[in-house]
Amino acid sequence: MTQIGSVWGGGPGDGYEALARRFRPIFQRIREGAVERELSRTLPHEPIAWLKEARFGALRVPRADGGSGATLPELFNLLIELSEADSNVTQALRAHFGFAEDIVNSRSPARRARWLPRLLDGETTGSAWTETGQAKQAAFATTVTRAADRASVTGSKYYTTGSLFADWIDIGASGEDGQSLSAVVSRHAPGVNVVDDWDGFGQILTASGTTVFAEAPVAPEDVVVDEDRFRYSAAFYQLVHLATLAGIGRAAANDVAKAVGERRRSYTNAPAPLPSQDAQVLQVVGRVRGAAYSAGAIVLKAAEALQRAFDQRFAGDEAAEEQANAIAELEVAQAQTVVSNLILDAVTLLFDALGASATRRAAAFDRYWRNARTLSSHNPRIYKDRIVGDFAVNGTPPPYQWRIGEA
């Protein structure tokens, strides 16, 4: 069924349905095993392999280079659909799509020539940026060391989402002179150890745990100065979370509607003999669905801002590019608290349409709240309204990047 036929609104552009049809059978296969994976804590190696085989990770590679040439609104709409199937899979691929976006933004012909074929071959990239313990905001403890024509990376990272499933790992590090760098290391290189020790209560299948690098070899050409990365990256990574939340909302809306339609038991104080005829229950179902619809619409609107920032990247007008980046960051910040509130409310409210049986572990409805709450804890939303307000009142531009650690 088309997105319009499902009453989630039109897709982004006339070509979206043709693009989506390539992947919807895979999304359906992923959806069919989502509850079982959750209950048995089976990591989604197989679903991610299906997507890699279908070259889902090459969506943003330009058509001229052999890719799908998807626009950013098309990408984010597909991520909503994937998240409707299983939000763990989307988050596990979040770092990959950020890395791919950096490659298609690159002005370096050599870097593009090195990485675009890998994307087209289905290879994916995980991330290793956050450090724990006594990490500093000013610099990474993880370091890149150069010697002659060789380089290596040493350090320990946490929240290395997706790295366990990936072919490569994108690492935030410091150079020997303290300069902020990124380095890409083979997931299977000597000295790389990815540990599945993520112990969060939500998004439990994303393998967002520890990765240790012990003099892991890195090609010198895969060491990039942090300032060279695409400028709307913070907005991009945050919008992936918002798309994931919107997909969770759709899945919750579909599940609660199905459960209400199948339910035969009701209460003596209910206004109708069946829940499917109960106006109060139907109102709850409608509110959940309305929240999911609104979240998706907001995500697509914000994705348009990112597309404008990308379009300015190669337009040759530095001031216009800077303005487009700032606007993209602000639009995503404006969306963040609204989308997270919509979905957190929806995945709590859905239980009001059902009986106590909805809390059974086998139903796995609790995963929607756990996953939404976990995603909403990233990139603290409590700061976003202040940043937006500071711009609205004082014209203060938004910060593009942030780090966590001791000040």
Automatic annotation (TrEMBL):
Superkingdom, natural source: Bacteria
Family membership: Belongs to the HpaH/HsaA monooxygenase family.
Keywords, ordered alphabetically: Oxidoreductase
Protein name in the entry: Alkylation response protein AidB-like acyl-CoA dehydrogenase
Residue ranges annotated for the Acyl-CoA dehydrogenase/oxidase N-terminal domain, each copy included: 29-123
Record domain Acyl-CoA dehydrogenase C-terminal: where: 240-378
Pfam families: Acyl-CoA_dh_2, Acyl-CoA_dh_N
PANTHER family: FLAVIN-DEPENDENT MONOOXYGENASE, OXYGENASE SUBUNIT HSAA, MEDIUM-CHAIN SPECIFIC ACYL-COA DEHYDROGENASE, MITOCHONDRIAL-RELATED
Keyword Oxidoreductase applies: yes
Position of the signal peptide: none
InterPro entries: Acyl-CoA_dehydrogenase (IPR050741), Acyl-CoA_DH_C (IPR013107), Acyl-CoA_Oxase/DH_mid-dom_sf (IPR046373), AcylCo_DH-like_C (IPR036250), AcylCoA_DH/ox_N (IPR013786), AcylCoA_DH/ox_N_sf (IPR037069), AcylCoA_DH/oxidase_NM_dom_sf (IPR009100)
